[in-house]
């Protein structure tokens, strides 16, 4: 993981700061009446468009959606499938929030090389790539690989 003191190679400082500000803003819209665990995400597309997402809980817990997936769904539904970075934050003071397993798989659907910023409430952050989060993830190209014949 890179610390916030190291530059992210393909993100400008302005883009990083905007992602951080927007993920905090998104967190303020969290609908989390059951867990009281607010999460916000901000996603930067390859063409420079930003999308925000927050976690939205449901009384039927399995139907809840995480902040990262909310942002990705909003972007993909608008035709964006190439991303530069996503930032995610929570109210945890002492550690960095990281995406859950389902979100890691959802993130890797769109590539392994874009950045993920883990952001604390004080705006300190660490950066990894999606591939770092899920090093042996199931990616779309696996569906194109040769398979054994079935009956």
Descriptive overview:
The structure is a single chain. The protein is α+β, with helices and mostly antiparallel strands and 151 residues long. The protein is 25% helix and 21% strand. The chain is built from four helices and six strands, in the order E-H-E-E-H-E-H-E-E-H. It has a six-stranded mixed beta sheet. The protein starts with a strand and ends in an 18-residue tail after the last helix. The N terminus is likely disordered.
In short:
By secondary structure, the protein is α+β, with helices and mostly antiparallel strands.
Class per helix and strand makeup:
alpha+beta
Unreliable segments of 5+ consecutive residues:
1-9
How far apart the termini lie comes to 46 Å
Characterize the biggest β-sheet.
6 strands, mixed
What are the secondary-structure elements, in order, as H or E?
EHEEHEHEEH
Distinct helical segment count: 4
Average pLDDT, all residues: 92
Q: Using the CA coordinates, give the radius of gyration.
A: 16 Å
With strands numbered from the N-terminus, the spatial order across the biggest sheet is 1-6-5-4-2-3
Name the descriptors:
single chain; 151 residues; alpha+beta; six-stranded mixed beta sheet; 4 helices; globular; disordered N terminus
């Amino acid at each position: 993981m890179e610390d916030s003191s190291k530059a992210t190679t393909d993100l400008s400082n302005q883009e990083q700061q905007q992602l951080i500000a927007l993920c905090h803003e998104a967190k303020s819209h969290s609908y989390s009446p059951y867990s009281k665990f607010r999460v916000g995400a901000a996603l930067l597309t390859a063409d420079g468009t930003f999308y925000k997402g927050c976690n939205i809980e449901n009384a039927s817990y399995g139907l809840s959606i995480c902040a990262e997936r909310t942002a990705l769904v909003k972007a993909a539904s608008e035709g964006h499938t190439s991303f530069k970075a996503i930032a995610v934050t929570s109210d945890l003071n002492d550690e960095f929030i990281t995406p859950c397993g389902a979100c890691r798989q959802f993130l890797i659907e769109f590539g392994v090389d874009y950045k993920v910023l883990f952001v604390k409430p004080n705006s300190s952050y660490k950066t990894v790539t999606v591939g770092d989060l899920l090093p042996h993830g199931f990616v779309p190209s696996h569906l194109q690989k040769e398979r054994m014949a079935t009956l």
